[in-house]
Amino acid sequence: MKPVHWLDDMQPGEAVGLGGAKIGRLVEMMAAGVHVPRGFVVGVDAYRAHCQVTGLDERIDAALAPLPPDAGEDRVAAAADEIRAAFEATALDSELAGEIGKAYQELTDRCQQSDLPVAVRSSATGEDSSDASFAGIFETYLGVSGPDAVLESVRACWTSLFTPRALSYRLQRGISHHAMPMAVGVLELIQARASGVAFSVHPITGKRDRMVVEGSWGWGEAVVQGLVTPDHAEIGKSDARVLRYDTARKETISEFDNAAGRVTESAMPEELREARAVDDDQLHAITAAVRSIEEHYGHPVDVEWVIHQGHQPGDPACIVQSRPVTVAAQEPEDAPTGWNSAAFAGKYAFGGKK
Amino acid sequence: MSNVVPVDEFVTDEWYPGFKPEYGYTPWSVEPFRTFRKEDEERFWFLDFHWPRGLTPMGLIWNEDGYSWGTQLAAEALPLPPGRGITQRIAGTHTYASSIDVTDEWEIGHRHELMQRNLPRFLENFDDIWAERRNEVEAWWQHLKGFDLRSQSLRGLGDYLVKARRFHRRSFEIHFEIMYPLLANYVGFYGACVDMGIDPNEIAKFLQGYDTKIMETDRALWDLTRQARQSGLDSVFLQHDATQLRGALAERGGPADEWLSSFDDFLEVYGYRTEGSCDIALPSWIEDPTPALGMVKTFLQKDDNHDFDAALQETIAERDAAIDSARAKLTSEEQEVFDAGLASCTAANFPWWQDDHNYYIDLRVSLPMRWACLQISEAVGADRPDDTIYLFWPELMQVVNGEKSYNSFRSLVEDRRQYFDYWAERRASMPKVLGTVPDAVTDPILIEIFGLNDHFLRAVQATGSTEDVKSLTGVAASKGSARGIARVLTNADELHRVQPGEILVCESTSPNWTPAFAKIAACVCDGGGTLSHAAIVGREYGVPTVTAVGLATLAIQDGDEIEVDGTNGTVTVYRRAANAAEPVEVST
């Protein structure tokens, strides 16, 4: 068993199986020509082995066995606490810890930066599936630096499989934790000029003729967590024309805090607050990537993107995550496919009654 | 059933003193026109803005030929999927209208299919259809205008009156045959635009800037104003009341004679027009030129001439800019929909037609019947020229056929005149709506022209005193804002009271109010939507306009200082006329 897999070593066909949904998709996207961060993944098998050899599996099963599917909040929370305490008390096997440390060292070498800050991302098997998105349930740690902190974050990602939220989400859907072993990606932290999300269809109306990009200065956490109102742009899919760009007043920024060694939220500098965060060239870079991803998968997607601080016109945008669109994915059934006087009159002219 | 306005006080079988029609008296297509019955309370009725004074017995013919015949026939012909047109009731002399709803789901679906087939055909051929219908109306008009009624016998006048009514009825068949499909197409385009994220306030602009017969009239009036100024006649106009102007000008002679000669040329082309829609009680400008002279007088009070060409160029530039700006925000797929929809609505342009057709139909259609009635009055020795319009159609037919002498109606006419005056007095306090107020209506004419949209329905449902109202809202019909003195008018006769820079507040406007838009600072209407007359003309003239305010004529008092925000659809009352000395009250 190889506990650690490099993104550029995995084949697209095996990547999701080895590295979970999130990291597996990065490999698939890379194969489709999309620019993604460099890094490796602590594989699904490593997680399984860790749970098995340390006896965690038994302790997890013991904690979960008495829980009925409709267990109350308190009982779920108690079970979750018990399991997480067990995870925290269980050290990594020294061989596994050594492999992870070695891989981190190699990543710093590849990126030519000592104590390279990395993003440590949960990548559970089956997360982001079209019927259960687990959106925002598992942890991501941005700006982790140094081998010990990386190990700590890997373990914290594993543990996040058993937060009360994750547990009740699975209970409600009848999903076993065995069905979604947790891989953890360790990726270079892209030095972000601006970050955000993008949708290959309009996320609210479901219109497929346009893409939507939302973004703000700095890292994407404030956007993803809804801590800031991002700039909003819509781009025509067939001609890549920017249809609108609404510049928001952005009060909060996620930035890398050197002292704390992680990405934290702070007040947006005044001069950036009402400045447009993404220029047309960057929008085109983002939407080109989104289009490639949607074409590759053959269904609408949303992504998290980062524009590098050193971004030059013509450079690609970096995609750090992608998943199938799970909300409002349906094309509105009566979306206009051309002008039809009678159809539009029927729809609008008679008080909504045809 | 909480929002029911009782009809009890208007329930009667008698239309006017001494007239209870027999069944089948009135022509109708689906449902006849009549007085209120108690069961009418289950339906929704709104006070029609077209006749603020009320209608005389002969005037009520419009309800029969226009609504009960014209709208119902057209609604069945297109057909309107959920409606069979408009029907109406009289309360005293005032008209309340309602839609006739189709309730059977299968039938609505069936009618929808028919409409799907018929509407595109109509739109593709609109130019030809409107040209043919216009020619038809024009042929009738020239025929009826060519008669010398003074040489006719009483029976001959009766024959003429019958023909004049056929022209009237045919005109309204055409009117609604055109109006429903044109409006339905426009509303469809409007809905598609809103769906594509286009600012609703921009949409009407896409179709503005096309000259109409009504604008042509206004332009000619301004030409006369310019001529009066150049001839140094300002002082004559400013020193005399509009009613005395013709005499004063004739007395002055010289350039004034020349001006009067130009004025008569103007009247020959544009003077066959009444100061209100479709009302036999109203004289044309030819019969009484006071309104036209009054307009020139108020125009002269403005410092500069209204530059129509510049205004039109500006309107066109604004249209093109609005189209470009809206298109830029659309995807290429949406642009295809938008471009085709705009092309369709430009070729069959509802806002344009809505103004243009008034010249051919609404403002002159009742004149031949009026001429016949006036001549009959003279022939039978009536006390006043317009006494015969206080007879109902079958009564007048009896007179012209020699079955009854006019003398037998003489005292009844006096009663009916008093009845008319009594109800004219009551107009201001008539309920805006009667019966059961619904959450929505389906007839596009009621929604878009009468403004019976959600906002209006909510406004009329609201109870409580209007005295304290400081801030009103309505449909943002024409952008911009202005502050000034409110002139609350009940009908167009009073337009001369409006001074340049004042704000017009009324139930609704009709084409004969159009010239006033060159002098007012803003306009507020109880009714109307984005397509009502005030909205269209407000945009053409760049006058901030708010429609569908619901209770503006009750909440705003003549002389109040108000601010109209046509961009956001709000009206703020700053100072009550009666308390003008008190500090300004700022609305919240």
From TrEMBL, chain A:
One example GO MF annotation: metal ion binding
Pathway recorded for this protein: Carbohydrate biosynthesis; gluconeogenesis
Keyword Ion transport belongs to the record: no
GO biological process, alphabetically ordered: gluconeogenesis
EC primary class: transferase
Keywords, alphabetical: ATP-binding, Kinase, Magnesium, Metal-binding, Nucleotide-binding, Pyruvate, Transferase
EC number(s) recorded for this UniProt protein: 2.7.9.2
Catalytic activity: pyruvate + ATP + H2O = phosphoenolpyruvate + AMP + phosphate + 2 H(+)
Every Pyruvate phosphate dikinase AMP/ATP-binding domain range: 20-334
UniProt xrefs under InterPro entries: ATP_grasp_subdomain_1, PEP_synth, PPDK_AMP/ATP-bd
Cofactor(s) this protein cannot do without: Mg(2+)
Transcription regulation found in the keyword field: no
PANTHER family, A to Z: PHOSPHOENOLPYRUVATE SYNTHASE
Its job: Catalyzes the phosphorylation of pyruvate to phosphoenolpyruvate.
Family the entry assigns: Belongs to the PEP-utilizing enzyme family.
Name of the protein: Phosphoenolpyruvate synthase
TrEMBL record, chain B:
This protein's record includes keyword Kinase: yes
Recorded GO MF terms: kinase activity
Domain PEP-utilising enzyme mobile per the UniProt entry, residue ranges: 499-569
Source domain of life: Bacteria
Coiled coil: none
InterPro entries: PEP-util_enz_mobile_dom (IPR008279), PEP_Utilizing_Enz (IPR051549), Phosphohistidine_dom_sf (IPR036637)
Keywords attached to this entry: Kinase, Pyruvate, Transferase
Native source species: Haloechinothrix alba
Protein name, as recorded: Pyruvate, water dikinase
SUPFAM superfamilies reported for this sequence: Phosphohistidine domain
